[in-house]
TrEMBL record:
Keyword match Metal-binding: no
Annotated organism of origin: Acanthoscelides obtectus (Bean weevil)
Gene Ontology BP terms: regulation of membrane depolarization; sodium ion transmembrane transport
UniProt lineage: Eukaryota, Metazoa, Ecdysozoa, Arthropoda, Hexapoda
Coiled-coil positions: none
Keywords: Membrane, Transmembrane, Transmembrane helix
Gene Ontology molecular functions: voltage-gated potassium channel activity
GO cellular component: HCN channel complex
Domain of life: Eukaryota
Domain annotation Cyclic nucleotide-binding: ranges: 373-438
Descriptive protein name: Cyclic nucleotide-binding domain-containing protein
Segments passing through the bilayer: 116-135, 147-167, 187-210, 242-262, 283-300
PROSITE patterns listed in its UniProt record: CNMP_BINDING_3
Amino acid sequence: MRSEARLSQRPIANFISWWLFCLPAFSPDTEINKFTIHPFSRIANFLEWFFCATRSFTYLWLPVCGLVPRQEWSPFIQFVRQVIKVSEVLTTTGFFVTGYVDSNTKDIILEAKKIALAYLKFYFTFDFLVFMGDYLLLREIMNPNEIYGVFDILANTLTHLGLVMRIRYYFVLQARCVNRLRVNRRFLALLYQLTLCTAILHLSTIYNVLVPKYAVGGDHFLPNESWISQSIGVERREVTKVYFESLMLVSCYFFGASYYTYEIKFMPEQITLSIISLIGRIYTLYLIGDMLVVFGMAAFPESRYEQFMGEVKEYMMAKNLPQDLRTRLEEYYECKMQKKFFSETKIIDTLSERLRTEMYLHFARKLIEQNNTLKTLPSTTLGVLISYMKSETFLADDVVCAVGKPTDMVFFLSAGTVAVYNKNSLELDHLYDGQDFGLDGGRRYAYVAAETSEIYYIRYKIFKSLMSEHNEVWANYEKKWAELQKRYNEIENEMESGGETILYELNRGALLEAPKTRLVIFDDL
């Protein structure tokens, strides 16, 4: 019986293990953030990889399909087009529930409404055009059998607009995904240049066909001197033949090689190939300069942030740090510095006392607005208090203060979420933006970051000496802490006695129906 019971519990145990693996992806169990995904979680990483993979296939395949009119698509091409649409719908859904880091405030946005509004404002329109561009024009109103050229031009234009407007984000996301792999820096540079060159050649190949066709209104209006008419003709429109003929022509003009198979006399084709040739010259110069820097043969000025991150990466390689720890460090510096590096101490020291106070108040304005204790202090005292504070960014699961390791710091949570534990590792509470903690000195409670959090801290002696000038504020602060400690004691007693479990509620009778008097009717009376 015991072996059968163990076997029956294995699927449950496997499910629990899987759920615990994915649990860090979701935000704390607040009602507003219930179904959002943390941007630094495993699920968010998977969604980024999925977007890169599906969008890479979309960039390669979808423009090729537009080389021939949609009425001449084979069943296989139509099937692949529908698969692309399904993948685009999945990635779009993921963007609606995945949080992001605000570049201005450095806050991690996990509110579903803000996430949806930000995505709708910046990227949704372009993603919508990618998988719905050819359906935005109603076929019943604009009959493609009669004026298929116009329908084909408009549908392709909308689809390409969506692709081109998202290509920068695609490269940023691709670089972020590849950086998580253990690959050499030079290999990354070569991979980036190969991807960039392939993308330029691919799009140039497509536009080398579409621009001349659309300039005259379709295939049937191309003149005989066009290279498309000479090589492919009007009747035979195989996608692969059209693409590879155009790729050969574009590659020669892009890299400056000779191409004598066709004489380019058609004006739209001459303009298109001239632009492609100019882009090729510019890219060649850029490629040479980048390769010289990568292989150490030349040096170009870098920003101080790039120099600092280069030193960090060299340090991680020298210490042979694991990939997970490397990723956490890179995400920490990216969130902390926002790709900017400067000596804040030197800048602050050159300011006058008044400007320095205003700067400190500006830095901590969000914390001051949300903390009831700090809001009641005068600006002079508040400026001095903030000047003594230091800020630090804690990643998820970082221990801010541990039980049994006394600290003389008082902490103020500016942004993020911190979980409170007792000495028995029971979770008692969650602290949110604006709340303060640590008055117990780490003797009774442990505080662990539940997500990436920005925390200010100050020594208890300095904090008390500044607050002693305002007796009423200090009395309210101690009263609030005493009430919070009393509530924690009640939660501890309830949880240690079995509270918040089904068995505990059954013993209390809270889950059972209360006895009621019911009317009984006997039919035989």
